[in-house]
Amino acid sequence: MDQVNITGVSMSVDFGAISSDQVHWEMKEAAILDVTDVQFKMKCGVLNYLVKMMHGKILSMVKENLPQFQSTLGQMVKELNEKLKSHDPNAFMINVLNDAKYPLNMTMTEAP
Questions:
Q1: Which end of the chain has less neighbouring CB within 10 Å, N or C?
Q2: 45: which strand partners?
Q3: What's the CA gap between 48 and 103, in Å, rounded?
Q4: Is 0.85 surpassed by the pTM of this model?
Q5: For residue range 87-112, what is the model confidence (pLDDT) as tens digits?
Q6: Residue with the larger pLDDT of the pair 83 and 57
């Protein structure tokens, strides 16, 4: 089995709930992601050689896509805030990892 080792990953995601009236609330997030290095270890020597040759390009592609992940996380929080404003029966249900198999019920009995 081939493996991927990702080293030096730094991820900071801060979530907070704010409310002006202690009844209606919304989420705020701040995400900071950084990857120092990505290493691939393949069983096939030829693939190992090719991956090592492309190491710099692969690492730059990973780093280029980190802002997109941060943006996606921000969009998910924005969508959650829109659901919180709607107050329908599913307002507090979100899908973890964008997969319907992992619903998360965020129902609260009181404001944070």
A1: N
A2: none
A3: 39
A4: no
A5: 666 666 777 777 777 777 766 544 44
A6: 57
Residue of 75, 84, 71, 76 whose CA lies nearest to 32? 71
What gap in Å lies between CA 95 and CA 98, rounded to an integer?
5
The pair phi, psi for residue 94, each rounded to 5°, is -130, 155
Q: What is the DSSP string of 20-58?
A: SSSSSEEEEEEEEEEEEEEEEE-SSHHHHHHHHHTHHHH
Place of tokens 């730094």: 10
Per the rule left: phi > 0, alpha: psi between -120 and 50, beta: everything else, 22 is left
* Residue 18 β-bridge partners: 26
93, amino acid identity: M
List of residues 6+ apart from 76 with CB closer than 8 A:
94, 98
The structure tokens listed for 84 are 């919180």
Token pair for residue 95?
A: 């899908």
